[in-house]
Design a protein that fits this description.
alpha/beta; 22 strands; globular; binds flavin-adenine dinucleotide
């Protein structure tokens, strides 16, 4: 089995597939422990405490999703969560323990109990390293292809996914990977926006690759703006800060969340808090630099130094602020995509043989808005389930073969990029315009006029990207050619985000339409699916939201 991506979803899938008896190749364009999961800070949710319940976790998730999440999948995720935490703890993840020696939790937004388990503010880092140890331990069954870049997914004549073409970044060599099943675990698409909390490698490759071979995407319009990012560079100040007791203040010193979420204040769900902040800023109650303030001095200094040490460093190094002594200026910033490649709760996409798990996928457990600390959980639960399901599928198959000529096509495509004239725009300039466009028109607040403009710009950028020249024509670690390929993925993903946002004529979760205020369950309690459907422009269809036990209600915090 081939797994594309070695973040938490990919590594968890590799382990469960190996445990189920499969032989696995796992490919990552960076060294696995540099996958973006390493940046996850605040923690991972589970109703593990006997006083808590999976039903409560599930309801919070459904409400957080603004009733767009599929409740069957949410039930599975929240029921399996406690076992995932225990599995990780037994492997050696050093989760925080409280004074009584038990696993301790912190509060997170939109949750009715403190159910976020954490390792200081380096939770992703801690988990990723422990899983990587397990991959190494199982090296007889799991082959790691580190610094290999997947360019294309492969299909047989019936449309079944049978592998991928990958480029060894060290020497530029291309190889076909034949596989009985392929699991996409290639992460999100944060770089489609500028700024973003996501690293440079998060370019939506898997979403675009699946889309290009006909897979359906779902909920693409749902882009999460995190309430606390640094202006300019987009660096994240973890929600853990508010979980530990930090306040949000406007320039008049008012704790404004009292007006927007009188029961939860700073710990309302992210879409609600980001909208509140943006409203304060737009109505002139923010600071001159277009921000509001996060006051972490409300948290005892000793606790901040112990449990939030990374953001102490970020504040000092990137904003010149000692967060233990003064408030830091923050604003909403692009952070996460709730949408992605549509899957069922075993990770199966609409293309036979192709699975997806983690941020690349849309199960959909996050619907219109993800609760903080539910993403790490999603990567692990659905990574594990995909691995098991795909291993079982592979067990009864013969190995498919791919025509060697398929590599020649990709070789030609890459040669064409290398041979482009230098008279077009620079890749970096196109990428910046794309990100800034998305951040201007497809952000916390949206409307028809802005979205239409965004679509026009994205389509123009697509034409410009197709002829943008590169400088490096070598084969060893040629990041120029990779950047050109990634730009193509980002533009495809951006197009589907804007098309989805134009289509949904209501306000739900992260999709707040100034021209269609209010949620409209009668017409829009449904997923927007987008696929190429054999053509070359996005086609929209709909699919129902699965409701098991929680009927949509008014959502207040
Ligand atoms: C700053 C930050 C903090 C966060 N904190 C939290 C938190 O506290 N709790 C929480 O629940 N969530 C958090 N999140 C969200 C969460 O970290 C991510 O959603 C999650 O880690 C994604 O994991 P993943 O395995 O799907 O993808 P990733 O970890 O992004 O891994 C993607 C993998 O795919 C590989 N890849 C991609 N494209 C290719 C290609 N073309 N060829 C080969 N390999 C490829 C990459 O090399 C990488 O190995 C945070 C996110 C950010 C940005």
């Amino acid at each position: 089995m081939l797994i594309i991506g070695a973040g938490l979803a990919g590594q968890r899938a590799a382990l469960s597939a190996a445990e189920a008896g499969a032989s696995v190749a796992i490919v990552s364009k960076v060294h696995p422990v540099r996958s973006h999961s390493v940046a996850a800070a605040g923690g991972i949710n589970a109703a593990l405490n006997p006083e808590d319940s999976w039903e409560s976790h599930a309801f919070d998730t459904v409400k957080g999703s603004d009733y767009l999440g599929d409740q069957d999948a949410i039930e599975i995720m929240t029921q399996e969560a406690p076992n995932e935490i225990l599995y990780l703890e037994h492997l050696g993840v050093t989760f925080h323990r409280n004074e009584t020696g038990h696993l301790g939790t912190r509060a997170f937004g939109g949750a009715s109990a403190a159910r976020t388990y954490y390792v200081a503010d380096i939770t992703g880092h801690a988990i990723l390293h422990v899983l990587y140890e397990q991959l190494m331990k199982r090296s007889e069954q799991i082959d790691r292809y580190e610094e290999w870049f997947t360019t294309d997914l492969l299909q047989d004549e019936n449309g079944t996914c049978i592998g991928a073409i990958c480029r060894d970044l060290r020497d530029g060599g291309l190889q076909v990977f034949n596989a009985k099943a392929v699991i996409l675990a290639s992460g999100g698409c944060g770089q489609v926006y500028r700024p973003t909390t996501n690293g440079l490698i998060v370019t939506g490759d898997g979403i675009a690759q699946a889309y290009r071979i006909g897979a359906r995407l779902m909920d693409m319009e749902m882009i999460q703006y995190h309430p606390t990012t640094l202006a300019g560079n987009g660096l994240l100040i973890t929600e853990g800060a508010r979980g530990e007791g930090a306040w949000l203040l406007n320039a008049e010193g008012e704790r404004f969340m009292e007006r927007y979420a009188p029961n939860k204040f700073e710990l309302a769900s992210r879409d609600v808090v980001s909208r509140a902040e943006q409203t304060e800023i737009n109505e002139g109650r923010g600071f001159e630099d277009g921000t509001v303030a996060l006051d972490i001095t409300k948290v005892p200094r000793r606790r901040t130094l112990e449990a939030l040490r990374e953001i102490v460093n970020i504040g000092r190094d990137f904003a010149g602020v000692d967060i233990t002594r003064e408030p830091i200026h923050i604003k909403p910033g692009m952070h996460y995509i709730m949408g992605g490649v549509k899957t069922d709760y075993d990770g199966q996409t609409t293309v036979p043989g192709l699975y997806a798990a983690g941020e690349v996928a849309c199960v959909s457990v996050h619907g219109g808005n993800r609760l903080g600390a539910n993403s790490l959980l999603d990567t692990l639960v659905f990574g594990r389930r995909s691995g098991v399901h795909a291993a079982n599928r592979a067990r009864n198959m013969t190995m498919p073969a791919t025509l060697a000529s398929r590599v020649a096509e990709t070789e030609r495509d890459i040669a064409a990029i290398m041979n482009r004239q230098q008279n077009g725009r620079r890749i970096g300039a196109i990428k910046n315009e794309l990100g800034e466009t998305m951040n201007e028109y497809v952000a916390v607040f949206r409307d028809q006029e802005g979205l239409t403009k965004a679509l026009e710009i994205v389509r123009r950028l697509k034409e410009e990207a197709a002829v943008a020249g590169i400088d490096d024509r070598g084969s060893v670690f040629n990041q120029d050619v990779i950047a050109a390929i990634e730009l193509g993925y980002m533009i495809d993903v951006a197009e589907t985000i804007v098309v989805g946002a134009l289509e949904r004529k209501e306000s739900r979760g992260a999709q707040w339409r100034l021209d269609y205020p209010g949620r409209n369950d009668e017409e829009w309690l449904k997923h927007i699916d987008i696929s190429l459907n054999g053509g070359d422009t996005p086609q929209v269809t709909y699919s129902p939201v699965t409701i098991t036990r929680w009927q949509p209600e008014e959502r207040t915090y």
